[in-house]
Amino acid sequence: xxxxxxxxxxxxxxxxxxxxxxxxxxxxxxxxxxxxxxxxxxxxxxxxxxxxxxxxxxxxxxxxxxxxxxxxxxxxxxxxxxxxxxxxxxxxxxxxxxxxxxxxxxxxxxxxxxxxxxxxxxxxxxxxxxxxxxxxxxxxxxxxxxxxxxxxxxxxxxxxxxxxxxxxxxxxxxxxxxxxxxxxxxxxxxxxxxxxxxxxxxxxxxxxxxxxxxxxxxxxxxxxxxxxxxxxxxxxxxxxxxxxxxxxxxxxxxxxxxxxxxxxxxxxxxxxxxxxxxxxxxxxxxxxxxxxxxxxxxxxxxxxxxxxxxxxxxxxxxxxxxxxxxxxxxxxxxxxxxxxxxxxxxxxxxxxxxxxxxxxxxxxxxxxxxxxxxxxxxxxxxxxxxxxxxxxxxxxxxxxxxxxxxxxxxxxxxxxxxxxxxxxxxxxxxxxxxxxxxxxxxxxxxxxxxxxxxxxxxxxxxxxxxxxxxxxxxxxxxxx
Length: 480
Prior knowledge:
Layout (H helix, E strand, L loop, with lengths): L2 E5 L5 H11 L4 E5 L3 H7 L11 H8 L4 E4 L2 H7 L2 E4 L19 H13 L4 E5 L7 H11 L6 E5 L9 H6 L4 E5 L3 H14 L8 E5 H32 L3 H9 L20 H14 L3 H28 L8 E5 L14 H11 L3 E5 L5 H9 L22 E3 L3 H5 L4 E4 L11 H6 L6 E4 L6 H7 L2 E4 L6 H4 L6
Parallel strand pairs: 1-2, 1-4, 2-3, 4-5, 5-6, 7-8, 9-10, 9-12, 10-11, 12-13, 13-14
Helix pairs in contact: 1-3, 5-6, 9-11, 9-12, 11-12, 12-13
EC number: 1.1.1.22
Pfam families: UDPG_MGDP_dh (PF00984), UDPG_MGDP_dh_C (PF03720), UDPG_MGDP_dh_N (PF03721)
Protein name: UDP-glucose 6-dehydrogenase
């Protein structure tokens, strides 16, 4: 029986291994992590991450050929294939701080694999890693190999949170990079055979190691670039009276461009986009390509500009101050159908409003109060380190209240900011909400989910990203 072990039971490791176990019943799959709380959650009725469809897959396989354990060394030692899906946070100090990936966790995983291995292994990079990481890991393993053969493969994930299970069951492509040696090619074939249980052979792309590593960074950079492009257009649309939804629809009809990732919003978030672009910038700078580095830097600058612009619009619309005013925040996760708050635009928007002394009432159907308080108290990039290395849970921010109902959040509020596109926000009783708000009542729609005309008929003053401005807003000074 082939045995697979995955180090890291997070957003990538957990769902990926669950689907492999589902599709390969003859393979034993173990997911290991040093966090006892996380493993306990994977073994419970309440999984540690929210992802549509994940619950059913885990329950179908758990205890049969899918196991979650803190006995890291035993499972690594017994495995034929070891996936490594540990954090690669952005460095916060030292060389490359603020851009380069911190490979501390990767390096310690590689050293542990070398220490406990008694048989040949295929080691698979599953985390997003900078180009040439495989080479560094290879050096650690071969210099500590004790005669054991390690083959390194790069197998980047291309999951979108909220649709991860469907992405795993029906991938656009599976990418496997390895050495162009007989042993390297054999390792590629072994991993290819695993995926071939449910993925057609023509969808499995085999490349060299560096191409596989760079393809992941490039894919995320291209996607983020599209979002920043349409968000840059949204500012121009507001200035000219154009409608960004109509513009992006017209642009997306061009088959060379296509319609995906062309929805204007308050900005992109998630664990990968900013981190991977910063990584790309650092690699370009290290390879003497400052012009290329500056090009990708601009994608992040536009994203930051969009969040600042949104905050400025809120403050300037409400008589140039939100001090002491209650602002309802609807949605805190970085996108719908996930509880993930990593790099969510809501953090910067909330911090901007708190900076002007607003009182926030936050509602998100999947994000806990502890997580929200933690996110609003943390420094940039701290989120990407293991929980025990993050700042201990801070004293609650007095100006922030978390509630479990949109109507409670909006009661007596001066304004509403919609920051996540949860479906339920489209169908709320906005007449009821309006009746219970302070007047004038404002809605700032950062995701273009509400019908602005209907809300204006109720009496709201509405700002929608990239849409023609409400007459009220035209009269207010723009400080964007």
